[in-house]
Design brief:
heterodimer; A: Ubiquitin-like (UB roll); DNA polymerase, domain 1; globular; B: Enolase-like, domain 1; five-stranded antiparallel sheet; binds flavin-adenine dinucleotide; binds FE2/S2 (inorganic) cluster
Amino acid sequence: MPQVTLTVNGKTASVEVEGRTLLVELLRDKLGLTGTHVGCDTSQCGACVVHVDGKAVKSCTMLAVQANGAAVTTIEGLAAADGTLHPMQEAFRENHALQCGFCTPGMVMSAIDIVATHPDGLSEAEIRHCLEGNLCRCTGYHNIVKAVSAAWPVMHGKVAAE
Amino acid sequence: MYDFAYHKPSSVADAVALLGDSEAKALAGGQTFIPVLKQRLNKPSAVVDLAGLGLSGITVTATTVTIGASTTHVTVANSAEVKKAIPGLANLASWIGDVAVRYRGTIGGSLANNDPAACYPSAALALGATIKTNTREIAADDFFQGMFTTALEPGEIILSASFPIPEMSAYEKFRNPASRYAMVGVFVAKTASGVRVAVTGASQGGVFRHTAFETALSANFSASALDGIATPADGLNSDIHGSAAYRAHLVGVMAKRAVAAAA
Ligand SMILES: Cc1cc2nc3c(=O)[nH]c(=O)nc-3n(C[C@H](O)[C@H](O)[C@H](O)COP(=O)(O)OP(=O)(O)OC[C@H]3O[C@@H](n4cnc5c(N)ncnc54)[C@H](O)[C@@H]3O)c2cc1C
Ligand code: FES
Ligand code: FES
């Protein structure tokens, strides 16, 4: 069976998988990182989004073997060791950007990518376009968009985080 | 998903050898192939990952934009050189799927798959692209042969696609709101030798050239040149998302928007 060695949230993991094992299965079933969710079978909902080498990808649509040698960040890897939330997590909490929370891990990982790739500014229309791959059945998106707008200046050091 | 052996060769020759097994299948970004495997619609004995072949990259000359098969949609969308040379092509890439799909999905995978609702085939056909494989060069006019069907032989690998730089180009698509694939997408390219118009998403036969629109636009490159030219609904897709007549109407609307955006 193939052996996959990768870094997950800064720690090295070496795991035996099958060719068909998905990255999300490696994370949830082999490493016990159940913060990453599976919401669909069709690669459309975005609940499974994680960062692979800094890019927001659907971990349900990538084989574990394709992540060999990669650095993966999941929702569990965002908060500081003392429990201080990542600015995006804090913005979601502050803006009531989640209800049931099922979509939230993928939403937060995608949102961080959007803010990071728009250093010169981020309009509401851009946020909505960039979040198209993340479906939420509860919030109606409005507060999610507000949260991403609120996190932008904090992540880019334009205001001090409270 | 059925299990399979996984290979990641580091040369085209090794990949071709591995794909010589008729049960083996190539894997690029996996944004189409992995969902297909999950639904057990395909049962390969081996999966040959093309990511190690070094087929990623964009080269722009005075006349041509050449894009390596493994180049991701996001790379094309963000390329300053592509935006300058063929803005319609960069714009098309920026509207494929969503951010996560664009980080993984590749141009080679999109062309090889020839999904009847995919975006890239319309650009390749309208721009008169040449598709280079491990054995030959294929003109776009010969490459697309109907829904999910191309001129590729079993085991043949796309290495790159070359797009002649037009005077003007634009792509407009009416997206399925759930999947974001094209319900109808129209690519318009104006060159010194005339105008080419390719339509995706609409036809049961996959991407096609709209010769009536091409003739009208070659004489007068403006949206109003398309007034009164009806697109026959015969052979167009009819499904829960829209009837054939609705799609026929959308072809005209998207073509006009594309001409307006290009001009
Ligand atoms: C949610 C979602 C939305 C999407 N929306 C759109 C959209 O709006 N427009 C659009 O155009 N597409 C859309 N796609 C499809 C996406 O663009 C895919 O990335 C693309 O169609 C396939 O590229 P890939 O690199 O992922 O290929 P894969 O999925 O890895 O492969 C696809 C097929 O091509 C073959 N193949 C791959 N590379 C080569 C090669 N170099 N030579 C020969 N054969 C090869 C494979 O064997 C396989 O049969 C969407 C996908 C998803 C999941
Ligand atoms: S679980 Fe729905 S996109 Fe991955
Ligand atoms: S908060 Fe329930 S799905 Fe988004």
